[in-house]
Amino acid sequence: MNTYNPTLASHFALLLGKREAELRAMLGAGAAYESQAPEAQGREVLDFKDIAVEDTQAVVDEAKAEQATEELEQVVAARRRMRDGSYGECQDCGEAIDVRRLVALPGTAFCAACQQIHEHQLERAQPLRRTTPHGRYA
Ligand SMILES: [Zn+2]
Fold first, then answer.
1. What is the DSSP letter of 126?
2. How many CB atoms lie within 10 A of CB 44?
3. Residues whose CB is under 5 A from ligand 1 (ion)?
4. pLDDT tens-digit profile of 67-123?
5. Which domain holds residue 31?
6. Of the chain's two ends, which shows fewer C-beta atoms within 10 Å, N or C?
7. Is residue 1 a part of any domain in this protein?
8. CATH number of the domain to which 75 belongs
9. How far apart are CA 58 and CA 52, in angstroms?
């Protein structure tokens, strides 16, 4: 396995800087988009289909913005670890993280194995959604 080592630091420092700029631009653009209130677009007639589409779009944008905010936090924390010299180490088990994983997710703080454990814990913490009303006792 090709794991992270400090000789790759300058490459990943660049990658993190680029990702941070991208995410900040994305979040900034989102805020600008929101400031364009529907009234300002000079539209007088709205049918229900338009409203439904706009609602869906707003939910998608909100989810995207939330994801971008989360990733930005990870990237900022990763840059801090870069300065500490602990970048590329799993924050759980301390093993060096696979380089391919860092290329895909430069802000990640965990190796693939520890990430999986975290995701399983999150799944278990969420209420079950698969039960149907028919499956419950009346
Ligand atoms: Zn780990």
1. S
2. 4
3. 90, 92-93, 111, 114
4. 999 999 999 999 999 999 999 999 999 999 999 999 999 999 999 999 999 888 877
5. 6-135
6. C
7. no
8. 1.20.120.910
9. 10
